[in-house]
Design goal:
Elements lengths: L5 E14 L3 H4 L11 E14 L2 E2 L4 E8 L8 E8 L4 H12 L13 E10 L2 E5 L2 E6 L3 E7 L11 E2 L10 E13 L2 E5 L4 E11 L2
Parallel strand pairs: 5-6
Antiparallel strand pairs: 1-2, 1-13, 2-3, 2-4, 4-5, 7-8, 8-9, 9-11, 10-11, 11-12, 11-13
Length: about 210
């Protein structure tokens, strides 16, 4: 898959089970998650994309991951959910991009992954409204975030920059307004409104 030229651009957000602010980001993944282990769901909406001759516009995908300790120590378990609306060619392309098997930013995480949990096709609804984001994959993932407002620029969130994050080195800071995960044998739920979130535009391409 790595030989195929591709590019995707759109919007991303995530929630994790760390309390705000996630220590993984500020420690370059060296710190232990605030609750000992990490559950995270990264959601992506492709505004424009192409994998070889296959268009990927307006499709969604999600990456589900768990680590038993600090992310930099490895032992990740990772699964991918792709948009049920996609054709088989589109599903294969999204799975390759999301897993890193097709190259691009996610491939850098490959050495940290111990277990590949699989790929599933599900109906995915991704919503963006100002500094709010939400994802619904019925029965599997329900999550939403709201940006932490900037005191200096009304209507904009706070940001953290120059990070190692594969989606974008510049991330808006957000709090989860609710997260529920039941996918690939991984389960967690949070309704506290105090857990961590991020969002950003993303623009990836093959090497």
């Amino acid at each position: 898959m790595a030989q195929v030229a591709w590019q995707v651009a759109g919007d991303y957000f995530e929630t994790c089970n760390c309390a705000y602010l996630c220590p993984c980001i500020t420690s370059n993944m060296a710190a232990a998650p605030s609750k000992g282990e990490c559950f995270v769901a990264l959601a992506f909406h492709v505004d424009q994309g192409r994998y070889g001759g296959t268009a990927l516009d307006d499709l969604n995908f999600a990456v589900i991951a768990h680590t038993p300790g600090a992310m930099a120590e490895g032992h990740w378990s990772v699964g991918v959910i792709v948009d049920e609306r996609a054709t088989q060619e589109q599903r294969d392309a999204l799975a390759g991009i999301a897993s890193g098997q097709a190259g691009g930013p996610m491939s850098a995480l490959g050495p940290l992954v111990e277990r590949v949990l699989g790929v599933e096709a599900r109906p995915i609804t991704y919503r963006k409204d100002g500094t709010k984001r939400s994802l619904s994959i019925p029965g599997v993932v329900e999550q939403a975030v709201e940006g932490v407002p900037s005191p200096a620029k009304p209507g904009e969130p706070l940001y953290v920059d120059n990070t190692l994050h594969p989606a974008n080195p510049r991330l808006a800071l957000a709090r989860s307004t609710g997260s529920s995960l039941n996918a690939f044998g991984l389960r967690w739920e949070d309704k506290s409104g105090q857990n961590n979130g991020h969002f950003a535009p993303f623009a990836w391409k093959s090497a």
